[in-house]
Amino acid sequence: MDAVLTVPEAHNEPVLSYAPGTAERGSLERRLAELAGERAELTMTIGGRTRMGGGAPADVVQPHRHAHVLGVTRHATRADALDAVAAAGEAAPGWRDLSYEARASIFLKAADLAAGPWRDTLNAATMLGQSKTAIQAEIDAACELIDFLRFNVHFGRKLLAEQPASAPGTWNRLDHRPLEGFVYAITPFNFTAIAANLPTAPALMGNTVIWKPSVTQQLAAHHTMRLLEAAGLPPGVINMVTGDGLAVSDVALAHPDLAGIHFTGSTRVFQHLWATVGANLGTYRSYPRLVGETGGKDFILAHPSADPAALATAMVRGAFEYQGQKCSAASRAYVPRSLWAAGLRDRVAAETEALSYGDVTDLKHFGGAVIDARAFARHAAALDRIKAAPSCTVLAGGTYDDEVGYFVRPTVVECTDPADELFTTEYFGPILAVYVYDDLDEVVRQADAASPYALTGAIFARDRGALEDLGRRLRFAAGNLYLNDKPTGAVVGQQPFGGGRASGTNDKAGSWHNLVRWTSPRTIKETFAPPTSVAYPHMR
Ligand SMILES: NC(=O)c1ccc[n+]([C@@H]2O[C@H](COP(=O)([O-])OP(=O)(O)OC[C@H]3O[C@@H](n4cnc5c(N)ncnc54)[C@H](O)[C@@H]3O)[C@@H](O)[C@H]2O)c1
Ligand SMILES: N[C@@H](CCC=O)C(=O)O
């Protein structure tokens, strides 16, 4: 077709409430019962064909009811990984030669399917496999996933329209080529939307991809792959391999065609991937693009002028929604003694104690379980240490129980040592450390420097001058800063997401900043009447 096309305008998907009596609640509950009643074969998808990985099996369970197996997967082997690399290579020429509009329409169709007939499946799989409540699944597996697909199409179109100036007699063009080789997308357990975005964003820009989801997110990943196929994604464009990824990395990180890594997960794993790429640098055809969004130790800093009710709500929601398993979750708070003693302490403690965590298929709960036995053990050990530390006082929670599910109670700890690991280490769970301060200047330095991370942060103040001043002094302490709001819940297209320092490369998922990493532009200059003699005028 000869046309300069615009793409449909992107809008954020409205969040459904799942309140009692709503149509969406009944429909979701039916799908939950169906998926819980299945024992799915969680296959790989390589070159459009499904097969089980060749390695050891792994059960995918409900974290809040760990005896209930939802499906079985298998770790990918080196042979599986080699097949995935080959499939990505075979699909590459056809995929990159499709027009942008043809590629984009596949992802726009996937967005519409996710907004309609696939919504319940994605939400139910995320609730069951990752222990999200209905609302936490909705903002992730439905709305954010849909937003990533629609907004990326919009941002990608703007990127392609980015063209250079041309002097008279010439025409300069930028050809926004994909990378030469495959992109290796490795995704975390905690967001179905992130798991979908990491392979689809490079694919939209014309790349082919090997996608390695987290074992504990494999049920929702499985359905995401089916959704993309239903939207018409050609075989081999995204090749999903399963399991822990160790054998896949052995192959992919040593392969000359590795063109990029699109990672979200822990800082430790990203640093390992980066070091391996560094060690293999002479191996590659191009310099691989390394994009990684990683851990956080996200803060709330309250000024004495803060509104205590708004602050208490942000502390509880920001720390304990999805059991604190958001990279953005508030895990340390710095509050002035005046507010703390005047009722904030009692309010935060009481509201935290009142939170109900349980089986998320019962929609009355505020939260569910932590993701697996490893996370449970990490939290149990942290809580045992806290309870024995003289500088720490547990104000709410502090208990754990894994008899039925991996349950850790939401916990508020007041700690008099601002250098304690509570303020420096990412536990990735429902533990909020509070430091009560007398000296604002000292605490700003603590908030800035105590941890190696710089992902999200929130400042609470009603004094406009204080808000400005604190924002300036904490400029590099967070890639996403919230003023008088909790530090979680970034919305695609509204708060581009990512952090600096040890929190990642800050390439802002769901924005043009991210998409630009998956292209390697070629500049083309055409001269309409080229010179026909060598001599310059000054030589006459
Ligand atoms: N900054 C962000 O945008 C963001 C978003 C979500 C999660 N996170 C971070 O993710 C972490 C929690 O997620 P997680 O527990 O899934 O992280 P993780 O690092 O344990 O695992 C992430 C992924 O890496 C895989 N993996 C681990 N070692 C590998 C290897 N050698 N080769 C290939 N794959 C390998 C895992 O199987 C998983 O798929 C937290 O640190 C959190 O802060 C960050
Ligand atoms: N983007 C999400 C967090 C993603 C990390 O887990 C938020 O803003 O809460």
From TrEMBL:
InterPro entries: Ald_DH/histidinol_DH, Ald_DH_C, Ald_DH_CS_CYS, Ald_DH_N, Aldehyde_DH_dom, P5CDH/ALDH4A1, Proline_metab_enzyme. Keywords: NAD, Oxidoreductase, Proline metabolism. It catalyses: L-glutamate 5-semialdehyde + NAD(+) + H2O = L-glutamate + NADH + 2 H(+). Gene3D superfamilies: Aldehyde Dehydrogenase, Chain A, domain 1 (3.40.605.10), Aldehyde Dehydrogenase, Chain A, domain 2 (3.40.309.10). Its EC number is 1.2.1.88. This is L-glutamate gamma-semialdehyde dehydrogenase. Belongs to the aldehyde dehydrogenase family. Pathway: Amino-acid degradation; L-proline degradation into L-glutamate; L-glutamate from L-proline: step 2/2. Residues 58-520 form the Aldehyde dehydrogenase domain. It holds the Pfam family Aldedh. The gene is putA_1.
